[in-house]
Amino acid sequence: MIALIDCNNFYVSCERVFQPVLIGRPLIVLSNNDGCAISRSNEAKDLGIKMGNAHFMIKDLIQQHNVQIRSSNYALYGDMSQRVMQVIKSFVPKTEVYSIDEIFCDLSELEAYNDLTALGIQIREAVKKYTGIPVTVGIAPTKVLAKMSNKYAKKLTAEIGVHCADTQDLIDCLLRFTPVGDIWGIGSEIEKLLLAKGFKTAADLVNAPEEWVRKTLTVKGQRLLNELKGISSMLFTDERPAKRNIATMRSFGTLLSAKKDIQHALAAHMATCAAKLRKEGTCARKLQVSIETNNYRTQDKQLSHSIVIDLPVATNSTPELIRYAMKALDMIFKEGHNFKKTGVVALDLVPQPNVQMGLFDTVKRSREKKLMKAVDNINVSFRKDTVRYSVQGYSDKWKLQQQHLSNPYTTRFDQLREVS
DNA sequence: TCTGGGGTCCTAGGACCC
DNA sequence: TCTGGGGTCCTAGGACCC
C-alpha cells in the first residue's frame, strides 16, 4: 500500500502558522511578481477565486470581501516543507518527496500497522502538532489510486483527513467518484479527448480496451490504466534522481526594451543558476537563453526567442557562464520590443568530477573553483548578492514586484518570533 | 520514367505535474 | 497598468551512418 500525503493549501497554511490572525479569513498567496493566485484558503475558494486567476482581475472581489493577500515567500515555504517531511519520515522509512507539499510513502513494510487509517491519523496529528501545517492522507495500492484517495479524503472525509482504499469495493467507489479530468496524469487536452469518446469517470476508463489506450494515450496511458487496476506501474524511488536541467527565469517588474537592462537581469539570473549548479555539484554542457515579450499585450509587437549554445567545457563558474549568456543574448536580442521576461536553462548536466577537460582550455579552473566557493560561502552566510558581478548592474528596473511579502520567520535570526 | 533498408542519435515541441 | 517558475517524460521527424 502507498500513501500520498499532501499539505492543505500549503503556502496559505505556512502564512497562517506565523500570523494566526489570518485563520478563518479568506487569504491568497500570489505568484512571483504578484501576478496571480497560486494558493487559496478554503474561504477564498468559496468566493470563487480560481487557481491562476490574475490578481488585477479579481481586485474587486478582493476588496469586497476583504481577502488577505501575501506575496510568495519561498524561503519560508521551503523551510516549512523540510520540517513537514522530516516529521513524516520519522514514521515511514521509505518515502519519496514528490513536490514542495507532497510526499509518497511506501507502507508495505509497516506490517505492524494493520490499521492504516489509524496510522494516517497519527501522522496527520503529529505534523499538525510539530509544524502547524494541516495535511491530508490518501492510501491505496498504487500511486495513482493514492492520489485519488487523497482527493476523496479532501472532499468527503475532511474532518478525519484520511482515506484508505484497501478493498476492491472501496477502490471501485473511488473510480466511480473521480471524473477523468481529475486523474493524476490526465491534463486538459487528454480530458477533452476522453470526454468526446464518452469516458466520464475513472471507472469508465479502467474498462477501456488496452489496445486503444496504448495507441491513443501511448505508454503513459498504458501505465495509468495499470495503476487504476491496482497494478503498480510507476517506480518508487527513495533517492532523488540527479536533475537533468536547472532553470532560472523571471518576469520583470515592468516592461523593458533597452538591451542594457536585459543584460543586467540575465546576468543576475545566470549567477543564481550557476549557484544552483554548484549546490547540486554539476556542470552544464549547454546553455539555453531566452527572451519573451508579454503575449497578453495584443497591442505590442511580439517576440519569443531562445537559443541553445554548446559550451566548449562543461562549467558551473559564474563569470564564464555569464560571458556565454551575454553572447547568446547578442544573437537573439532585437531592438524595438517591450520585453517581459528573460531566463537561462542549464542543460546536459554532468557531475562535476566527470567533467571532460578541453585540450585548448585556457580558463584557470582550480583557481576559479576556489573563488566560486568563497563567493557562495559569503552569499549564504550573509545574504544573497552580497558579492556579485558588476554586469548584474545596480538597477531595480527588472526586479520583482512583491508588495505583500511576509517575513522569512524561520531562516533569519532577526526574524525569529518571540514567545512570552 | 525509374533510386533500399536497416540502424542511431539528437532536437523541438507537446503534454503533463506542482 | 496588471497574467509565475520551475521541472519531467514522450514522440515525431530530421540528420546521419553503412
Protein described:
This protein has 420 residues and is of the alpha+beta class. The protein has helices at residues 10-18, 42-46, 59-64, 74-89, 116-131, 143-156, 168-177, 188-196, 202-206, 210-228, 259-280, 318-332, 365-381, and strands at 2-7, 27-30, 37-40, 68-71, 95-99, 102-106, 135-140, 162-164, 246-256, 282-293, 304-315, 339-351. A 5-stranded mixed β-sheet has the order 5-6-1-7-8. A 4-stranded antiparallel β-sheet has the order 9-12-10-11. Helix 6 (143-156) links the parallel strand 7 and strand 8. Helix 4 crosses helix 5 and helix 11 crosses helix 12 (318-332). It is globular, with a radius of gyration of 24 Å. The mean pLDDT is 93. It binds a DNA duplex (18 and 18 nucleotides) through residues 30-36, 38, 52-57, 59, 72, 98-102, 184-190, 218-220, 243-251, 254-255, 294-296, 308, 341, 343, 401.
